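Re: [ENG-882] Designed sequences occasionally contain unexpected residues at chain ends

Forwarding the minimal case from QA. C-alpha cells:
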C-alpha cells in the first residue's frame, strides 16, 4: 500500500512540482529539481517570507552573501570543530540513522502507549547523554538498553555511534592542497554576521536591527532521505536580529510568536504545528526552540528560533581582529550585540505546504484530487478556458488571460473536455478557473469557478483581474 508521502512524491512528478535531479542518469541521491509549478510555489513562499521579514519591518534589511567564504569563517563559527551528527548503522539493512532521533522517536512511541513513567526515564537519560563527555557512547548505551529497533529492518543489531562532520570541502584555484581548502557554506547565517556592520552603516540602521537572507546551503547529510525534507543542497530563509545584551529573551519570545503566526497565515492549522524545546541547545545558544509540523513521517522541524548570544560576533572579532561592537550613547558603553535568529527551511516549508494542501474528495459523484494552496502562494492564480476550440471563443479567452497577466500568473488551456481541464487545475492548486462560452459572445460575461467549492457564477470579463486580486487580498498572506 502506498504511503501518504509516496502519494505526494508521485503527484509532484506528475504535475511538475518536483523532479528527481539528473533522472536520465539514474538520479543523484537527496537532490531534486523544482519543475514549472514547483518553482512558482517556491518563489511565492520566499516572497511571502521576504515581505513579512523585510518589507513589514523598518529596521530589517536584506543581503545576499556569497556561498564561498574565507575558511576562517567556519573555524570561528565552530563548524570545523563541532559540526557533527551522532550516527549509527543498522547492520541488517546497512542504513544509517541519527542516534538522538532514534531515541526521541522511541520516547514518543512510549508516550503513545501510555508508558509515561518509562518515557520520562528515557527522556532524562537522553538529556544526560547529550551533555556527557562521551556523547556517542552514552547514546549507544540507551539504544541497546531500550532495545530500539531499526525503522526499516526491525532489527536491533547496531554499530557503535560515530560523529561525522557534515561540511562539503572543495578547493579554490587550480591546485588542491590544504592551503586552498574551502567549504560550501553549511548555513547562511555567517554571511550575515561578517557583513553585520557593513549593512548597519549603509542601510542606516540603529539597534535593534535585523538582516535577512534567502540562500543555498550545503550539508553532507549521511542520512538523506524522505524526499525534500532532508537534502544535501537546500535553501534557507534566515534572519539575524541584533539586540542589546539582556534583552535577548524578550526578543526571543517576540520572534517566536511572529514566526508561528506566519506559518498559520500560510493556511497551516494549529493542530498540525507544535513547539519543540531543545534539550541541548547548540554551542552558540542560550535558548532554542523549533516549530514542528506533523508530516506523514511524523513531527519534524520546519523552523528554528534561537538566542545565539554574542558567540558569533565575538568569535569573528577574536579571529579576524576586527571590532564587532556598537556604542550606546545613553550608557556611553560599547558592547558586542546579542543575536536572536529565525531560521526556516524553504524546501521543508514547501513540503509542509504540499502535504497540507493535498486532499482527495468526490465532486458530482466523481473523485478529484485537490491541492488547496492559499491563493497568495498558489503557482497559478487563475486559468482561462474557451468552452470549445472553434469560432471566436479562443480569441476572447486569450484576451481575458492576457488582461490578467501583468498582475497574476495565469494558465491558458483549450485541450480536452472542460471537466478534465477543471481537474487538472484542481491538482495544480489553481484557485479560480474562468470559462468563455456562448453567452460570453452575447453579453461579455464569463463563468468563474471556485477550486474549493466547485461553485460557479458569472461576472463581466473585464472584472476577471480584479476578481483574482480580491480573492488573494481576502485570504491571509
Amino acid at each position: 500500500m502506498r504511503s501518504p508521502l509516496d502519494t505526494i512524491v508521485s503527484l509532484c512528478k506528475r504535475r511538475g512540482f518536483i523532479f528527481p535531479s539528473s533522472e536520465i542518469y539514474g538520479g543523484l541521491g537527496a537532490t531534486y529539481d523544482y519543475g514549472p509549478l514547483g518553482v512558482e510555489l517556491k518563489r511565492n513562499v520566499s516572497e511571502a517570507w521576504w515581505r513579512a521579514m523585510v518589507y513589514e519591518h523598518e529596521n530589517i534589511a536584506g543581503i545576499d552573501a556569497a556561498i564561498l567564504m574565507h575558511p576562517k569563517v567556519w573555524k570561528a563559527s565552530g563548524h570545523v570543530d563541532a559540526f557533527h551528527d551522532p550516527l549509527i548503522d543498522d547492520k541488517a539493512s546497512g542504513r544509517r540513522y541519527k542516534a538522538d532521533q532514534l531515541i526521541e522517536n522511541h520516547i514518543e512511541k512510549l508516550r503513545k502507549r501510555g508508558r509515561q513513567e518509562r518515557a520520562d526515564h528515557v527522556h532524562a537519560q537522553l538529556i544526560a547523554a547529550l551533555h556527557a563527555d562521551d556523547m556517542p557512547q552514552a547514546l549507544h548505551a540507551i539504544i541497546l538498553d531500550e532495545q530500539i529497533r531499526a525503522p526499516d529492518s526491525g532489527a536491533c543489531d547496531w554499530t557503535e555511534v560515530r560523529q561525522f562532520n557534515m561540511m562539503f570541502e572543495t578547493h579554490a584555484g587550480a591546485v588542491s592542497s590544504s592551503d586552498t581548502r574551502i567549504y560550501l557554506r553549511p548555513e547562511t547565517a555567517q554571511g550575515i554576521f561578517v557583513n553585520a556592520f557593513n549593512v548597519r552603516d549603509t542601510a542606516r540602521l540603529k539597534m535593534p536591527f535585523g538582516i535577512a537572507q534567502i540562500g543555498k546551503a550545503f550539508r553532507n547529510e549521511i542520512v538523506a532521505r524522505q524526499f525534500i525534507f532532508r537534502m544535501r543542497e537546500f535553501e534557507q530563509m534566515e534572519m539575524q536580529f541584533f539586540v542589546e545584551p539582556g534583552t535577548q529573551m524578550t526578543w526571543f519570545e517576540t520572534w517566536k510568536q511572529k514566526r508561528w503566526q506566519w506559518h498559520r497565515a500560510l493556511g497551516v492549522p494549529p493542530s498540525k504545528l507544535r513547539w519543540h524545546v531543545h534539550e541541548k541547545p547548540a554551542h552558540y545558544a542560550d535558548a532554542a526552540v523549533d516549530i514542528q509540523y506533523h508530516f506523514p513521517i511524523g513531527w519534524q522541524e520546519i523552523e528554528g528560533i534561537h538566542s545565539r548570544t554574542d558567540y558569533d560576533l565575538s568569535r569573528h572579532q577574536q579571529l579576524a581582529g576586527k571590532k564587532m561592537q556598537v556604542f550606546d550613547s545613553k550608557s556611553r558603553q560599547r558592547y558586542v550585540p546579542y543575536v536572536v535568529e529565525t531560521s526556516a527551511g524553504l524546501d521543508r516549508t514547501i513540503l509542509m505546504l504540499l502535504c497540507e494542501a493535498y486532499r482527495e474528495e468526490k465532486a458530482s459523484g466523481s473523485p478529484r484530487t485537490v491541492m488547496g494552496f492559499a491563493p497568495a502562494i498558489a503557482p497559478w492564480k487563475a486559468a482561462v478556458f474557451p468552452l470549445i476550440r472553434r469560432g471566436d471563443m479562443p480569441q476572447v479567452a486569450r484576451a481575458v488571460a492576457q488582461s490578467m497577466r501583468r498582475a497574476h500568473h495565469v494558465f491558458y488551456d483549450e485541450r480536452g473536455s472542460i471537466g478534465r481541464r477543471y481537474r487538472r487545475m484542481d491538482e495544480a492548486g489553481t484557485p479560480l478557473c474562468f470559462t468563455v462560452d456562448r453567452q460570453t459572445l452575447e453579453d461579455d460575461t464569463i463563468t468563474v469557478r471556485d477550486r474549493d467549492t466547485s461553485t460557479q457564477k458569472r461576472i463581466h470579463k473585464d472584472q476577471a483581474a480584479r476578481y483574482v486580486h480580491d480573492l488573494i487580498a481576502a485570504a491571509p498572506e
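QA comment: On inspection the terminal residues look reasonable. The longest helix spans residues 36-55. Proposing we downgrade this to a documentation issue.
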